[in-house]
Amino acid sequence: MSIFKFISLSNLLSNQKIKYLLVGSYNTIFGYLIFVSLFHYFSSTINFSLLLALTHIISVTNNFFLYRSLVFKVREKIARNYLRFHLVYFYIYIINLILLTILVNIMSWNIYLSQGLIIIITTILSYFLNKNYSFSKRLKNS
């Protein structure tokens, strides 16, 4: 018997962690492609930390609306959730910037590979921060 007979697609898609990974995969690819595109076209005139900041703003706004509607299914207090989400991703951005600076400037790693590896770390961290802070039902009334 195939394992697929025991696991239905609808059961997988109803799992919040699976949905987070699917939406997160899209968001990761989206953000990474924005970073690569901006770096490719503007790195000769703009420092990568500024390009990372622009990527951050574009990606986080996209991420917020997808996570809010598809993963955490929050319907109320959009402004509060948006602020919390941005605080989480500001924290993620600072971690990303520090790690990227260390890997590229100090360790002389390739910038594309470095950013790709950092994404893995920050994706895991962001799930827990979003679940327990940005879209937390416990914090809903605070």
Summarize the structure.
The chain has one domain (10-134). It is 77% helix and 0% strand. It has five helices and no strands.
Distance between the termini: 50 Å
Strand content: under 5%
Integer average pLDDT: 85
Quaternary state of this entry equals: single chain
Structure class: mainly alpha
Q: How many helices does DSSP assign? A: 5
* Unreliable sequence segments: none
Number of domains: 1
Helix content: over 70%
The coarse silhouette is globular
The largest pleated sheet is described as: none
Rg on CA atoms, Å: 17 Å
Number of E-state strands: 0
Written overview of the protein:
With 142 residues, this protein is mainly alpha-helical. It has one domain. Helix content is 77%, strand content 0%. It is built from five helices and no strands. It has helices at residues 9-14, 16-42, 48-71, 78-106, 111-134. The longest helix has 29 residues, at 78-106.
